[in-house]
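Agenda item 2: zinc ion complex prediction
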Amino acid sequence: MATYAYQCADCGPFEVRRPIGTAEPRAECAGCGAPAPRVFTPPLLARTPPAKARALRAQEASAHEPRVVDGVPPAERRPAPPPDPRWAGLPRP
Ligand SMILES: [Zn+2]
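Presented output:
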């Protein structure tokens, strides 16, 4: 299945899922029923989230040239949670 994009003049863009190679040059708009022309979009390039794109670039770069570091990265310390007032009533050791 593939997702094909169409542009209705009144309702705006919409997508239709069909088997690959079966896209019609026009599709019926689900909102108003008017025939809408197909628009062409780059496949999956515009929909890649920025964080995923960064991860993919880093993965590709490290496959050919691993990143070299000078030392062990510092450990991340979580801040202590705020004290719970109910702890004051607990017995002390
Ligand atoms: Zn429409």
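Discussion summary: The chain has a mean pLDDT of 88.
Owner for follow-up: CH.
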